[in-house]
Amino acid sequence: MIFLRSLLHALWMLVTVVPWGIMMLMASLFLRANPMYWLAVGWLSLAIRGARVLLGIQVRVTGMDNLPQGETSQAILLVKHQSTLETFLIPTLMPHPLAFVFKKELLYVPFFGWAMARLDMIHIDRSQRSEAFNKVVAQGKRLLSRGVWIIMFPEGTRIPRGEQGVYKTGGTRLAIETGAPVVPIAVSSAKVWPRKAFLKRPGVVDVVIGRPIPSEGREPAELMREVEDWIEGRMREIDPEAYPPKTGA
């Protein structure tokens, strides 16, 4: 049954992404960035709705009231990364458009990547590290000034359930450079949608949104340690089965 449900959801995403990608390409000829973004979120909502109906995945969100308020508010979302699910899910939850920071190779993925190329995102060449970060800062300032929030995964890649990756300081460096606060977010997606796995299982995914942390006067490594401690602490609360109990010194 799990295999069948997973197959149906994969087919659902495939048969919807192709026409949606074509529609995005056509719409980009006459739509501006903001409506183009929400058009893309429409397909993400279809994928999440399909996960709920076909896979039995439910989403429970706490802390929405912690998000910065106002159309011109700024934020850099730093999110726990366990699977593809949060990549689809977080934009459907946020009241502001989001700009992902991602490697440019994703732009070459048929239909999905082509549609992303039509959005105002930040794609970087990881082989050019210093130039890449300067590009992130320049584009980040421009997007934040328009009320677009930046979303980053500080661990850099999807991390298996119950494990902790290396939290890189790119997100906090960007926050300090732009003056935007960081918003830590914990997501227990691997309980139902493991990384690089075809089979998905029914269950509840918890999304916990923390309070904004000011970046002014902070050091990147010190600020990231605070983000890391908060996220990993919440992960142990929302998915205790995946983490061994901490032992005393």
From TrEMBL:
The keyword DNA repair does not apply. Keywords: Acyltransferase, Membrane, Transferase, Transmembrane, Transmembrane helix. The keyword Acyltransferase applies. Residues 75-190 form the Phospholipid/glycerol acyltransferase domain. One of its GO terms (biological process) is phosphatidic acid biosynthetic process. Pathway: Lipid metabolism. SMART domains: PlsC (SM00563). It comes from the Bacteria. The chain crosses the membrane at residues 7-30. PANTHER family: 1-ACYL-SN-GLYCEROL-3-PHOSPHATE ACYLTRANSFERASE (PTHR10434). This is Acyl-phosphate glycerol 3-phosphate acyltransferase. It comes from Hylemonella gracilis str. Niagara R.
